Amino acid sequence: MASAIAYVAAVVLILIIIGAVIWLAPSGPRTASTSSVQPSSGKTTAQSSSSATSTASQTGTASYATVPVGMTDPPSVPAGTQAVLITYSNVQIQTTGSNGTSGWVDASGSGTVNALAVVNASKTLATAKVAVNSTIDAVRMSVTSVKVVVNGTTYTATAPSTVTASVSNSSAVKPDSAVLVDLATEVTANASSSSNATSHTYVYSAYAAKAALTTNATVSVSVGAVVDISAAVKGALGLNLGSANTASSSSTSGYVNVPVGLTDPPSVPAGTQAVIISYSNVQVQTSAGNGMWINATGSGTVNALAVVNASQTIADAKVAANTTVDAVRMDVDYVKVIVKGTAYNATAPDNITADIASNSSVKANSAVLVDIASNVAAAMPIGSGNAGTAAYRYSDSSTNAMLTTNASVSASVGSVASLGAGLKSSLGIGI
What we know:
By secondary structure, this protein is of the alpha+beta class. Helices cover 18% and strands 44% of the residues.
């Protein structure tokens, strides 16, 4: 009986405790409810915070403009060029923020553009998100490949791996801003044989590339889209002007065949009957492409004693009109000296380079005349060397060249033109 009473007492106690807990539980919420204004205020603050976050997000979206990057290009190309296909990737825009921090922003877009198809038009290459009120300072892109189509044949051109264009009129970016890049494409031909098309190689350059900030009325925001551009707009942006036939007129009359002639009042030992110079790999350096060397067509031998008061055309090169020819160089394969009926091998330099003394713009009748100034000296007492030994030493220490006309240098490789003493003197070369 006692144990039963104890058991009942324990149950009652447990029930009392549970009742107390139940009674006390609402007390917490009621206490909380008395200060429910604070949680309500906190909730409102959270909503305000959410609203602020939303506002900031909208502000962030509005603070960035989608800036398209377009390309235009009145190119300079060789005769017969039908397309210049430039494959590009990794387009980037250099920006400077309002805090002065500068960096490169990746643009979205890659593909191929035909430079001849955007003479007076822009093709959108890529787009980038750029902060409004920042400035755009430059654009750069990787050049994957350049293919030149000439007279129906496609050639792979050598090209720089990257092209960079500075923005000439940088100003604050607006929501409708765009960048237009003028690549200023120049394609030049190097030919080891003018009669063999497969021997041609082409060099692509964009050394004069520049860019301008404009609007999406000039450059579409859709990658791949093309927008016509008037000459007035390009002129206002400070970009190169072109016309629908720029490529064809450039390809027809933009390049000149410039013959390279050699003259030589040599200094030789007594009894010398001939100084036979075997040459190859003639090249001319022009102002186009920042001093690019262009291969000339021609190789062979010339007798220095046969061109004392004459010029022999040793090669010809295709040079862009209105550029300058700054130097000529050629490889010397060997030199043989014939003295009193005996032929001797002469020691000689591997190549000869002649700077143009006073150059001017290349014209339709331009030619280059090289005064090789041969100097042959006995390397050992004359007669002590057997035929075929290097008994003589050949040098060209005072070689120079000048730009003249094809009246002084024939346009036909191998031809000889007479030069009067007066003409040589006027050109500043040895008599």
